[in-house]
Specification:
By secondary structure, the protein is of the alpha+beta class. It is built from three helices and four strands. A four-stranded antiparallel β-sheet has the order 2-3-1-4.
Length: 113
């Protein structure tokens, strides 16, 4: 089953297929430690996700949690857009008593399915 993100990603991949010198998609990968699940989840749904969806170049985003650790991957149309978003992560975190930022990195997207 495909969703809107899949279609947006597919359209982007088709549009850039075969173009030389084009910008490759990049992802912002964020790792956090979750201290207060309820507060962190509320901040994620009410603040983080809506802000990310409005970010320039946004393609798709996924947030995961397991045993007190959170990992997200948000894909952007270019390295520039991803780096801008990564910089914003550091200044727009939920309250420190809910979530601690462990790592933020920008990675090139090399394949998708």
């Amino acid at each position: 089953m495909h969703n809107g993100h899949d279609h947006a990603l597919l359209r982007y991949m088709v549009a850039r297929n075969g173009q030389k010198g084009e910008k490759l998609m990049h992802a912002v990968v964020v790792r956090v430690t979750v201290h207060d699940v309820e507060t962190a989840q509320a901040a994620l749904q009410e603040q983080v996700v809506p802000r990310v969806q409005q970010a320039p170049g946004f393609v798709a985003g996924y947030w995961t949690r397991s045993e007190g650790q959170g990992l997200s991957m948000v894909v952007f149309e270019s390295e520039e857009h991803a780096q801008q978003a990564a910089d914003l992560v550091k200044t727009n975190m939920p309250p420190a008593d809910a979530v601690t930022l462990d790592n933020v990195e920008v990675r090139e997207v090399v394949a998708s399915a």
